[in-house]
Protein: PadR family transcriptional regulator
Amino acid sequence: MVSDMTSDATLSSHLQELRRGTVVVASLTVLREPGYGYSLLETLSAAGFEVEANTLYPLLRRLESQGLLTSSWNTDEARPRKFYRTTPDGDAIADTLRAEWSRLDTAITDLDKPGSPE
Structure:
């Protein structure tokens, strides 16, 4: 529970900062299979990730410009959709980020144990 001395704005800022990187890891993980932006939003939302379209679409473009995603248009349906998929570099980055996430989770859990180093 947040104390009365800590403002909602402070908490919100820290939560936003914490979530920012997790959306990158989650997106790279999900997009190992081709998917379009709206389906990614739905998948992330169902998994508990709070992300808005105006945050996700620029992220997808940035990851593509970094060579971590590739995209192609599917015009087979009435509404064309841009599908994204991780590149080999994107897969490698996702693996590294997930391993680091796991390491950090373990480290934080260890810090919370009685007798942990201070």
Summary: The chain has a mean pLDDT of 91.
